[in-house]
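User: Predict structure, ligand S-adenosylmethionine.
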Amino acid sequence: MASKIPIGSPVRTQAIVNRYFVKAKKNLGQNFLVDQNAILGIVAAAGIEADDQVIEIGPGIGSLTEQLLLAGAKVFAYEVDDSLPPILQTELPQKINGVSLADRFKLILKDVLKADFKADIGDFFDFSKPIKVVANLPYYITTPIIFALAESDLHFASLTLMMQKEVAERLEAKPGTKAFGPLTIAVQTQMQVKLALTVSHNSFMPRPKVDSSVVVLTPLTDKPAISNREHFNWVVKMCFSQRRKTLNNNLKTLVPDKDERKQLLQCLGIDGHLRPEDLTIAQFIEIAKEIPAK
Ligand SMILES: C[S@@+](CC[C@H](N)C(=O)[O-])C[C@H]1O[C@@H](n2cnc3c(N)ncnc32)[C@H](O)[C@@H]1O
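Assistant: Predicted complex:
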């Protein structure tokens, strides 16, 4: 039996890939982190402290998981690739500060988009305490998982998520910019968005085509009142249906009558000649309130 890979080794990912002949599965968004600075950067951005309860999405071969455990977190992980758990069970530290791995780490083989968090996690976590989500996300689930987490009834302290740089830019965009759109608005009405770090594509194995960013999302304590979120998201989507056209044009589907449209915009004090990206989030909330739900 080959000797154990040292805990916290900066070449851990490469060593595990070599030892277990791991072939990254493109269809599962497998881009394993090889850059120790990036891994430690994610743990720092998440502000992991002893006994933090962390949900990790896609532990892969455990490069990030190991550092979460060493920082003192208790980790519950969702993974879909059934070839990986045996590697994790062998290569993760068997004891962390005198506590056994089984008491600090639990994995469920399940698509996180089908998660029933409280039922899946059971008594592994104390749900009266806040939970942190930390993940180097498989890119293909970035948007749906953010929506699913935002809608879940778990008490989150924060979501620290690695994603494609371009998606991160959309999340933190300001009005008046090209990146500002329905995703920005859906997220910023629920969470504060902070860009923590940018990670070069060279930090992954295999190397993706584009760079990534780590974003920290923190639930807003003072969320704007949006009574029907589905309706709100739909109105916003319709307002952006033709980005290059004016708001007045985009509103035609929602308010077909020209005079009614004019009156609505006048009443709200919004210039119909503006492009949708030039409106503020507060203005979208006002528009949605005036449009009857389907
Ligand atoms: C980008 S890799 C990250 C691996 C590891 N955390 C790292 O940073 O090196 C994404 C991981 O998510 C897993 N995954 C893909 N789709 C998933 C899903 N729907 N639910 C849970 N895990 C998923 C992949 O198998 C892979 O291990």
